[in-house]
Design brief:
The chain is of the alpha/beta class. The protein contains 9 helices and 16 strands. The mean pLDDT is 97. The structure holds 4'-deoxy-4'-aminopyridoxal-5'-phosphate (PMP).
């Protein structure tokens, strides 16, 4: 295997993964742990895969300090799948309030409308005290990190009306701790901070299980999946295996005198601060998100002269800075700074930004 540095990959997802994890996956591809099998070839009900999923779950529970009253489910269907699966399980055919802070929560509201009476609690990033909330809603939905818009809740809303909060945390899951006291259910696709696409993580309070609508597919009924320890149907075994290796990588991660998730969060704060400072300090680029809700994970930015966009992307690629093109609905650029992006990657991006500006500004 070559020892030369791989390019830095700023994709919003599927996204960059820790290199030691990729190397371990490669090394174990033909024979996992002396079993004579690739993880892809194992029965999900065998003892080998049983050990893999059990360890992945307990490591994840420890990393995120998930309380005992939450079940952790390994599912399929992605974030968009959960937009239907959540109302089918928790909506009870009644009312659902959704804070629309960007593209992903807008999609969640639209999908939930097929199964529930949906009210938009807020449009844009509005303080929770001003949200329109109904006391008899089944739950309140928020997207805690809007991947496209680059908006993040740095503190989860504290609901005081006794209605559970559902968070779509797809794009910042495992980048920082979660305040579980404020959460009823959290879901996220794995393909940003956790592993390959195909795995969806769900954290759900026990007390919310068992109220699914009749029309809910059995494989997407949280109570059924929980009762079968995520083995009601075949789970995405290979993706769970890779995710488990990522959890071990996070556990051993060290930065600035810290270890584990605290170290990951510290580095994420530093990476984001470095990039925002570079953007704000330039008259050539801009990020349009108010400072209070800027995402640490996804940083959309624009060149003031948009005719330079193609040139910017081509030169970035030539400098080993990949997948910086913004989402098609927004345009411009977007740098995603997930856990596996090293500080050196952001430093390389910042020096490229400055160099490009010096040549074209
Ligand atoms: N929610 C958020 C916040 C996302 O970032 C994404 C994917 N980018 C989704 C939902 C949809 O996820 P999937 O494509 O896995 O269905």
């Amino acid at each position: 295997m070559t020892s030369s540095r791989r390019p830095f990959n700023f994709s919003a997802g599927p996204a960059t993964l820790p290199e030691p994890v990729l190397r371990q996956v490669a090394a174990e591809m033909l024979d996992w742990g002396g079993s004579g099998m690739s993880v892809m070839e194992m029965s999900h009900r065998g003892k080998e895969f049983g050990a893999i999923i059990e360890r992945a779950e307990s490591d994840l529970r420890e990393l995120l300090a998930v309380p005992a009253e939450f079940r952790i489910l390994f599912m399929q269907g992605g974030g968009l799948g959960e937009n239907a699966i959540v109302p089918l399980n928790l909506g009870r055919g009644g009312k659902v309030d959704v804070a629309v802070t960007g593209a992903w929560s807008r999609k969640s509201a639209a999908e939930a409308r097929r199964y529930a009476d949906v009210q938009v609690a807020a449009e844009g990033f509005v303080p929770v005290g001003q949200w329109r909330l109904r006391d008899d809603a089944a739950y309140v939905h928020v997207c805690s990190n809007e991947t496209i818009d680059g908006i993040e809740f740095h503190e989860l809303p504290q609901l005081t009306h006794g209605v559970p909060l559902v968070i779509d945390c797809s794009s910042h899951l495992l980048s920082r701790p979660i305040d579980w006291r404020r959460v009823g259910l959290a879901f996220g696709g794995a393909q940003k901070n956790i592993g390959p696409a195909g795995l969806t993580l769900v954290f759900v309070r026990d007390e919310l299980l068992g109220h699914a609508l009749d029309i809910c597919p059995s494989a997407f009924n949280y109570a059924t999946v929980a009762a079968a320890q995520s083995m009601y149907n075949t789970p995405p075994t290979f993706a769970i295996y890779v995710a488990g290796l990522v959890f071990q990588w996070v556990q051993g991660f060290e930065y600035a005198g810290q270890r584990g998730l605290a170290a990951i969060e510290r580095r994420n704060i530093d990476k984001a601060a470095l990039l925002y400072a570079a953007l704000d300090g330039s008259g050539f680029y801009e990020n349009r998100v108010p400072a209070a809700c800027r995402s640490r994970m996804n940083v959309p930015f624009f060149l003031k002269d948009e005719t330079l966009n193609e040139r910017f992307l081509a030169e970035a690629r030539a400098h080993g800075l990949l997948q910086l093109k913004g989402h098609k609905s927004v345009g411009g650029m977007r740098a995603s700074l997930y856990n596996a992006m090293p500080l050196e990657g952001v430093q390389a991006l910042v020096s490229f930004l400055q160099d490009f500006e010096a040549r074209h500004g």
